[in-house]
Each structure stands twice: as C-alpha cells, then as structure tokens.
Write a structure and sequence with these properties.
alpha/beta, two-stranded antiparallel ribbon
C-alpha cells in the first residue's frame, strides 16, 4: 500500500503543482537499448496507476518516439489530471534525423510537432533543450534573443504555463536565470549522491523562486547499477576514478542495508530547492520500484557516515529523520 505522492508548487506559479516524483521518458525512446512499444506504454500506465502525474519528454528522445508513446499510454486520461513537460530546440525531420533550431519559427514548429505526436491540445511546461551542444555560443544568443521571448509570449497567452531550460549543466542555466523570467529548470546529473557541483545554483534558484527538477539522479546509470563493468556515467563508460568513488559510496550504503539506487533517490530529493525528481522507467516493474523507494525510511546514520567519509559535500542537505 502506497501513501499519496507529495505535491510541490512549480516556482512562483501557485496554481501549477506536480507530483514530486515524475517519470522521464528518455529511456523509452530507446536511449540505451530498444524498448518494445507495448512495454513502454505499460511502464507509463503503471506509473500513472501508482500516482505519478508529472511526465517529462522531448522530441530528441527516440526522434519523437517517446512523445508518441507517452501520448498513446495516456489516451483517455483526463488532461487536467496530468502535467506534461516537453522541450524545444530540436526539430525532427520526416526521415527521423534531427537538427537544432532555437528560432521563433523553430520553437513554434517544435511545439506544434510535439502536440501532434502526443495527441494533446497543450503541454504545461516548455523547456529549451541542451543549447550548450554543438554550438554553445551561437545557440545561447539565439535562445536569449528568440527562443525565450517566444516561450514567454506563449506563457503570457496562456498556451503554456511555465518556461525554462533542460540541460546537463547548471552554469548556462544560471546565465539564463539572470537574463530571463524563467519558472523552472530541469538539471540532469549535476546534483546527485555522486556529485553536488550545483549546490550554489540550487540555493540561487530557491532564493529566486525558480523551481528545479532533477533528472539523471543515477548519473546516467552508475548509481543504479553500481560500479559494474560497463557502468555508465554521463552517457559513457565510467572512468576509473568515478568507479572507485561509487564503490566507496556503495560500501557505506550497503553496510546500512540500503541499496545504492535507493540512497541516490532519497539524497537527491532532500534539497529544499528541488521541486521534484524525474526518473525514467522502461518497464512496469521499474515504475513500481521507483514508486516503492519513495515511501522507504532510511537510517540517519547512513548520511552521517557518508559525510564523515568525505563522500558528500558537507553543505548538502540530507534526508531528515521522519
């Protein structure tokens, strides 16, 4: 029996709330391996049955396949029961190839294409996606000059409810926060049990009333699999130093009877700046495991031991004792 998932307000938007556990759809867009469509749809539907109401997707994930699968899985669910987040900045051609476009026309076309793939009349949150890839300087200028003004206009018109950026780094997101009236950010992999480089950025967002969703809380996989051969870190095979650090973290979590991935989820959600976690599932069983983890209680001594071993930043908040 699960308790109800807690809700959180997105930034300063009092009437926009998400379940603090959201589902990410990159894995069902065949991120690492092909996922059969029936299995992907079953994973989404199981997450919904377990109380998840916040779903993150993007045109990049499977060249539109993740959006299509999300739409199929949620067909028939009352639209007002869902918060859907997708992204702009990449356009999917008919042949499945993808190109960058952060122009005004590109933003509008991307949104139109996403709505068609989702089979929905609206999305709630629209993020600029990875403008630091390939041409960071050029994309940055176009995002500030064209993409964000277009998103803000769509927000003012009531077409969408929140705007922001989704990236694997916090430095450029901080730049955006100081130039644009953003509501939220999706930050992947930079605030996890393995690394807390984004601590100052999280404090800034909290002070400014900007919501933060954390993705990549397993650092692309290694905090879920442990330091096994071929373990992934930042979407590539983990280097020796990362493998060793994860070995040390895992030794402490297991000494307290806590699986590594369970500790990773609880740590990531403990920072008060964090609005919610976006965690991927490729099967109903993974969706059930992600939901089960939320309700567990972990021993406070675990965090004390990790701190004393110098494995988490001493400034990082840790889960409170219930």
């Amino acid at each position: 029996m699960h308790t109800d998932l807690p809700m959180a307000q997105v930034g300063r938007i009092s009437d926009l709330q998400v379940t603090r556990l959201g589902m990410g759809t990159a894995p069902i867009g065949n991120l690492y391996a092909p996922v059969p469509e029936a299995q992907a749809i079953a994973a989404i539907q199981r997450a919904y049955e377990l109380g998840v109401r916040f779903f993150d997707t993007a045109p990049l994930y499977g060249a539109g396949q993740a959006e299509e699968r999300l739409g199929k899985a949620l067909r028939g669910v009352p639209r007002d029961a869902l918060i859907i987040e997708t992204k702009v900045g990449r356009i999917v051609r008919e042949d499945g190839s993808i190109y960058f476009d952060f122009s005004r026309d590109g933003v509008l076309r991307s949104l139109e294409d996403s709505l068609r793939r989702l089979g929905m009349d609206r999305v709630d949150i629209l993020l600029v996606h990875d403008p630091d890839v390939e041409d960071p300087e050029g994309h940055f200028r176009q995002v500030v000059d064209e993409a964000f003004p277009t998103l803000v206009e769509l927000r003012e018109q009531g077409v969408i409810r929140a705007v922001g950026a989704g990236m694997n780094q916090w430095e450029m997101e901080w730049e955006f926060a100081q130039r644009v009236d953003v509501d939220c950010f999706l930050l992947a992999g930079r605030y996890t049990l393995l690394e807390q480089t984004a601590l100052d950025f999280l404090v800034y967002c909290q002070q400014q009333g900007i919501g933060v969703f954390l993705g990549g809380i397993y650092n692309s996989g290694i905090l879920a699999t442990g330091p096994v051969p071929g373990a992934k870190y930042n979407y590539e095979d983990a280097p020796p130093a990362i493998l060793e650090r994860v070995r040390r973290i895992q030794a402490i979590t297991e000494r307290h009877g806590v699986p590594l991935h369970v500790a990773a989820q609880h740590f990531a959600r403990a920072h008060p700046a964090v609005t919610g976690l976006i965690v991927g599932s490729v099967s109903p069983e993974e969706a059930e495991d992600n939901r089960r983890i939320w309700d567990l209680e972990l021993p406070p001594a675990l965090w004390q031991d990790l701190r004393e071993a110098g494995l988490i930043d001493p400034r990082a908040p840790v889960p409170e004792t219930p």
